[in-house]
Design brief:
two-stranded antiparallel sheet, mainly alpha
């Protein structure tokens, strides 16, 4: 789970401050996903990794499926991310 700093979103904040809050979240989210994805890889040679077919097939299907057509179990991680964004925005 990505730990978020408690920030109160305000329209009074400078645009640069708002961008930095959201960019920090985006980086934490991306790095968490990347760690997860690389953890699924089989390590071959130093610096090389192989992604098992089952993950390639599943993630290809998911990325090509509109959100509304995903099963509920696959929508939930997106909802978790949406809740984190709302928390950042103080909503």
């Amino acid at each position: 789970m990505v730990r978020l700093d408690r920030k109160v979103w305000s329209n009074e904040m400078k645009r640069e401050q708002q961008i930095e809050i959201l960019a920090k979240y985006a980086h934490k989210s991306w790095s968490g996903w990347t760690k997860y994805m690389l953890g699924k890889c089989l390590k071959r040679w130093p610096g090389d990794a192989h992604m098992p077919r089952e993950f390639v097939d599943r993630w290809t299907r998911q990325m090509n499926t509109p959100y509304e057509d995903l099963p509920e179990s696959e929508k939930e991680p997106d909802r978790v991310e949406a809740r984190k964004m709302l928390e950042l925005l103080g909503l």
